[in-house]
Structures are given as structure tokens and as C-alpha cells.
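User: Predict the structure for this protein chain, please.
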Amino acid sequence: MSVDNILHEASAVLHAALRYSSEFSEIDKIDHHIYRMRVLITQVAAHSYTTLGNNTNVSAELRELQDIKDVVLKAAEQRFGSTSTLLGEFRNTRKQAPSS
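Assistant: Here is the predicted structure, written as C-alpha cells:
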């Protein structure tokens, strides 16, 4: 999967998570994951589109971003149920990702 696709998906999941953050209040550590996702999106984007990332391991950041995105998606599924229409806001992002 391309960096652009990962960034697009993670950004869309982050947007949905922030939109419904009050609904996640009983799930432990989701705020930390949302914060970390914000940081990683910024870092990966900076490293991908500038020379700022020459000394960092973008692959490791991408893997962590993917992992955190999956954790947030799983938390959304736990909170809203796997058949919830609302969960579609978190999952439909994959269909909208630009192709490379």
C-alpha cells in the first residue's frame, strides 16, 4: 500500500475518531492512540514530502501508523458494533483512497 493511501486512510479514521471521541470515553487509552495517530500522520507526511525525514525510519512510522489505525478501528467496532452504520464512517475510507 502506498504512503499516500496509508495517510489518506489514517486521516479519515482520525477524523471519524475525533468526531465521535466522546463516544469512546469508556475505552481505555483511545485518547493516547488518537494523539499518537495525529503525530504519526504529521511525521510520515513530512518525511514523505520533504527531505526532513532522511534520518528517520519512515517504514517503522508507517507500520506504527497502520497498527494504531487498526486499534482505533477495532475500538470503534467494539463501541458501535460491527454492523453499525456509524462504523461505516471509519471503514468506508478504504474505498475512497486515491490510487497510485
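The first helix runs from residue 3 to 19.
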